[in-house]
Write a structure and sequence with these properties.
heterotrimer; A mainly alpha; B mainly alpha; C alpha/beta; A: mainly alpha; MetI-like fold; 2 domains; 75% helix; 0% strand; flat; C: alpha/beta; D-Maltodextrin-Binding Protein, domain 2; five-stranded mixed β-sheet; 42% helix; disordered N terminus
Chain lengths: 315, 281, 440
């Protein structure tokens, strides 16, 4: 890199007078660098979040014009609400399975795509398609692909003699949630794959070479050399993926509306119905806060692992 | 960089080919079906033997979306919003990640946690208050309101990923720059950024697609074709109950294909270009 | 969701507390901004009263905006600015946006459109202006009685009819042959089973059982056609687990389980997924809204062109055919500052001429029986004329200001009943929860 050197020459000449300026600028630097982010995040989140917390302490229902302070009442009702806990369980189930699946498949894809072979660019571009397609289209498309009577999936599976008769993917409480998880995995794996690919590409070649010279096979190279270096980005990507999966909404709402028999009701759809159909803004806000609290717990677990990993790397 | 230049055995090559084919089929299968549907009549959807080859082949759907539904305006709006969001996201995100990673700050993990927590509140809960806020400020149905919101939604991921990446850049480079007299801003601009291009491209791509596909806020905050984005446009194809499947398929092809081609082109230039330099050694 | 919160009383006399910086106000700034955008074309002269009209987005050969333009051009007293809300396919969003504006009670929008199921809710909240004075009994007689009933809450007319839609029975004329169109559900079952057995139809009868609003529409039709009801006329007696209602829901389950004329997939199907197999030629009978007919006759989208007939839905022995009422109606904002202008506008929009225009150009069926007999309608929408007897039997869904919460309970319980077969148990559970909701 020759650029720092060139700049260095110029600056060295002006060094003495710049020293004082530099010191002052260095003190302000972190604040200035963080200012745009702080303003941006603050302006969008502060009012809604505070408003939500405030509302959750009231029994605000727009249509009946109730609006009284009720303290922790909403949260007490929440704790004994079977619909809430059922949705909470579904959401956790969805989050865990989809994040694990996406991480595993994404890792597989990334490991393959980091190798050099002809047509690699094409495969990388193809891999991105599920993530690039508009969500409004993906949901409707999979609604039709998995249609119990005329969907392509049933047709393909029957043609391959893997199933005897049509499976009612969305209409049976046993398979509905699983089908939605499958669709989410298809759609979101590129997200993980892309981030893991970026992570893999930063692992220095020299480490590979060293391992190979020492006689390590492919699996050992992966397990002892690449994976440890990949762990930080893997955890960060998985954390964001888990938090997003926890808030899944579009897919469920379009495909099953929470049914059949509430078997796919997740926290987001429950909150949406409470807020915008029943217009119970107080109780709905309590639901949102409960979602937030659970997500904070998930983030904490990941965060601890990430920070520990980074501290171990000596940073 | 991380290229494995060893000779691969025949079996391993075969495995690679299998894996690559699997990825392509898995990822693009449904999309190919969409392409096929966009050239077919709607009634072909329910035929007993689905055929991938359109029979008859019609261009009606593509004509429909541009001439009747004016899809081009939605595409324009989405492009403006998504590009603005991505550029700002990368700029602000890189600055913040650099500050958190490089400049010795206390509370930096606390700050990172705060940044993260801001994106944890369920979006459906913040749509209402943001709608009110936007009304009061007169920002309803503008590009700005969408960019502001998408920026806030995308920053946490960009900051965290870049932070993780910056942590792996050796501090010696910073030292060298400091000795040469470069302050933090120059250091970021001239040293760290060029080194992080693959990471920036990746997070930029993710931010772009997230802004491109966002639906809930776009539906709530925009109300005319002058500012509505592609997802809202596609949702508006539905009249009462009827879902014009062929039109929707055509729209999704029009919207996805250029994105994929862009990625194809962009990737090759940036990533491949950097591998020549073994910059990290 | 459907909880009783101790100490909460839905007293209408409680004044809305203004919340600083929140729902309390929203300047004409916002709506002015939107209005400027939707093209407040040429506000001529200060003598024109300006009012705002918010409606869900509909389109056909023309758009609602163009009809509003017609009104503006036809007179010079009032100028209407049209605010476009999302299309009715995103009905929850339309509901939310309407409520947010009406709750501010700032007078804007002066006129709005409301789905039939929101009328009691808005009336109970005091957001819709009673219109009995301006539209007396003789005016009300000019509309379908079912629609007027749905537009009335607490004895007052709070909505003016716009367009109507209802569920109806579609059948394959070629498969029916010389047999009579079924008038009872038993006849339908027999015909459907025969068609399936002979292999001429893959499915006998398709309907919508997805856990969504449409399930309640189907429910109302089955229950009412047995003489049962979900909620009594007083809006407080819950009758969902009475024998007649239970029988009806049991029949819904039996179509899948016992008679096997409907696939289990109907439990995840709403309007479109159930329409597609029918227009694809796979089913003999279909229950759906009026929009299906136009698609069935379109060779680009249908394989059964010319083979589809429409009839009122069957009923149980001793009952009458019931069609679930749908459609949007007009409402006037109770806090409007331009009452006369608003009334003038809705009167024009609901007039026979405008309703005919909506029918021919946007495909929205009129709510005035007389308009159906107009020769112009016969020319441009011949099918719509045949629907008159169907619409005469239109039954509204439970009329209560708490409908939004009631429907969620119904959707959940009936979906459960249909999925596991424990009909009586699920409906008893529903009765408890609904009783708690409407009692408070």
């Amino acid at each position: 890199m020759t650029r720092p050197a060139a700049i260095g020459d110029t600056l060295r000449r002006a060094a003495p007078s710049l020293a004082a300026v530099r010191r002052r600028r260095a003190d302000w630097a972190p604040l200035l660098l963080l200012l745009p982010t702080t303003i941006s995040l603050g302006s969008v989140s502060v009012y809604p979040i505070l408003d939500g917390l405030w509302l959750s302490l009231h029994n605000t229902t727009l249509a009946t014009r109730e609006d009284r302070f009720v303290g922790w009442l909403n949260y007490r009702l929440l704790a004994t609400d079977p619909d809430f806990w059922s949705a909470w369980r579904h959401t956790l189930e969805f989050t865990a399975i989809s994040t694990l699946a996406e991480t595993a498949i994404g890792l597989g894809m990334a490991l393959l795509l980091v190798e050099r072979f002809t047509g690699r660019g094409l495969v990388r571009a193809a891999m991105l398609i599920p993530w690039a397609m508009p969500t409004v289209v993906t949901s409707k498309m999979f609604g039709w692909l998995f249609d119990g009577q005329n969907g392509l999936v049933n047709w393909v599976l029957r043609s391959l003699h893997l199933i005897g008769g049509n499976i009612d993917w969305y209409g049976s409480p046993n398979t509905a949630l699983g089908t939605i998880i499958f669709v989410d995995v298809w759609k979101t794996t590129p997200f993980m794959a892309l981030l893991l690919l970026a992570g893999l590409q930063t692992i220095p070649h020299s480490l590979h070479e060293a391992a190979r010279i020492d006689g390590a096979g492919a699996w050992q190279t992966f397990w002892h050399v690449r994976l440890p270096m990949l762990v930080p980005i893997l955890l960060i990507a998985a954390m964001f993926r888990a938090l997003d999966a926890f808030r899944i909404f579009d897919l469920v709402y379009v495909l099953t509306g929470g049914g059949p028999a509430d078997s796919t009701e997740v926290l987001s759809t429950l909150t949406y119905k409470t807020l915008f159909s029943a217009l119970e803004f107080g109780y709905g806000s309590a639901l949102s806060t409960a979602m937030f609290a659970t997500e904070a717990l998930i983030a904490l677990c990941f965060g601890v692992l990430i920070v520990r990993g980074m501290r171990r790397q000596g940073r | 960089m991380a290229e494995v230049g060893r000779r691969r055995s025949g079996a391993q090559n075969g495995l690679f080919l299998l894996g690559a084919t699997a990825i392509v089929l898995w990822s693009s299968g449904p999309f190919l079906w969409q392409i096929s549907t966009s050239f077919q009549l709607d009634r072909a959807l329910v035929s007993p033997t689905p055929s991938l080859i359109p029979h008859p082949f019609i261009l009606q759907h593509f004509l429909n979306i541009f001439l009747v539904k004016h899809f081009q305006f939605y595409i324009l709006n989405s492009t403006i919003v998504a590009i603005s969001t991505t550029l700002l996201c990368l700029a602000f995100g890189a600055m913040a990640a650099y500050a958190l990673s490089r400049l010795k700050m206390r509370w930096r993990f606390g700050l990172l946690g705060f940044i993260l927590s801001v994106s944890m509140f369920p979006q459906i809960a913040i749509v209402g208050p943001l709608y009110l806020l936007a009304s009061v400020l007169g920002l309803l149905d503008t590009y700005m309101v969408l960019v502001i919101i998408y920026l806030a939604l995308g920053l946490p991921l960009v900051i965290w990923v870049l932070f993780g990446y910056f942590q792996t850049i050796p501090e010696e480079l910073d030292e060298a720059a400091r000795i040469d007299g470069a302050g933090p801003f120059l250091s970021l601009l001239l040293i760290i950024i060029p080194l992080s291009l693959p990471c920036l491209v990746t997070t930029g791509l993710l931010a772009f697609i997230a802004a491109w596909n966002e639906f809930m806020f776009a539906l709530a905050l925009t109300s005319t074709i002058a500012h509505q984005t592609v997802p809202v446009g596609i949702a508006n194809f539905t009249n009462l109950y009827y879902v014009p499947w062929g039109d929707i398929a055509a729209a999704s092809v029009v919207v996805t294909l250029p994105l994929v081609l862009l990625v194809l082109f962009f990737q090759r230039r940036i990533i491949e270009g950097l591998t020549q330099g073994a910059v990290k050694e | 969701m459907s909880k009783t919160k101790p100490g909460s009383t839905a007293t209408v006399e409680r004044l809305p507390k203004p919340r600083p910086g929140r729902r309390a106000f929203l300047g004409g700034v916002a709506l002015g901004g939107v209005a400027a955008f939707t093209g407040a074309r040429g506000a001529r002269g200060a003598s024109r009263t300006e009012i705002a009209f918010a409606s869900a987005k509909f389109f056909g050969k023309e758009t609602v905006a163009q009809v509003v333009g017609m009104y503006n051009a036809s007179q010079s007293r009032v100028h209407v600015t049209y605010i476009e809300l999302p299309p009715p396919s995103a009905s929850t969003e339309v509901h939310q946006l309407l409520v947010q504006q009406l709750a501010r009670q700032s007078g804007s929008p002066d006129v709005f459109t409301q789905d039939v199921i929101w009328i009691a809710e808005f009336a109970g909240a005091g957001w819709a202006l009673p219109l009995d004075q301006e539209f007396g009994a003789d005016v009300r007689k000019q509309y379908f009685p079912g629609v007027i009933q749905a537009c009335t809450w607490g004895g007052k007319l709070t909505a003016l009819p716009w367009f109507i839609d209802s569920g109806m029975l579609y059948y394959r004329t070629d498969l029916l042959g010389s047999a009579a169109v079924p008038e009872t559900w038993d006849e339908l079952v027999a015909l459907a089973q025969a068609a399936e057995k002979s292999g001429r139809a893959r499915f006998g009868f398709l309907w919508q059982g997805k856990q969504a609003e449409v399930l309640v529409c189907d429910l109302v039709e089955f229950v009412a056609s047995n003489g049962g009801a979900i909620l009594g006329p007083d809006g407080r007696t819950v009758m969902i687990d009475d024998d007649k209602s239970v029988q009806a829901v049991q029949f819904m389950r039996d179509t899948i389980d016992r008679y096997k004329i409907s696939p289990q997939d109907v439990l995840s199907w709403d309007e479109e997924p159930s329409r597609r197999p029918f227009t694809g030629g796979q089913a003999m009978f279909l229950r759906n809204w009026s929009y299906v007919y136009t698609i069935a006759q379109d060779p680009k989208a249908s394989s059964v062109v010319g083979k589809v007939g429409v009839a009122p839905l069957p009923h149980f022995p001793g009952g009458r055919s019931a069609a679930c009422l749908g459609g949007y109606q007009y409402g006037v904002n109770a806090s409007t500052k331009n009452r006369d202008a608003a009334i003038d506008f809705v009167r024009w929009m609901s007039s026979p001429a405008t309703q005919l225009h909506f029918a021919t150009e946007l495909g929205l069926a009129p709510t005035r029986p007389d308009v159906f007999d107009d020769p112009k309608l016969a020319q441009s929408q011949p099918f719509m004329q045949k629907l008159k007897p169907v619409f005469l039997g239109a039954t509204p869904r439970p009329v209560t200001p708490k409908y939004a919460q009631v429907t969620l309970v119904l959707q959940s319980s009936v979906s459960r009943a249909l999925a596991d077969g424990n009909v009586k148990q699920a409906l008893s559970g529903a009765k408890e929860r609904i009783a708690a909701i409407v009692a408070s």
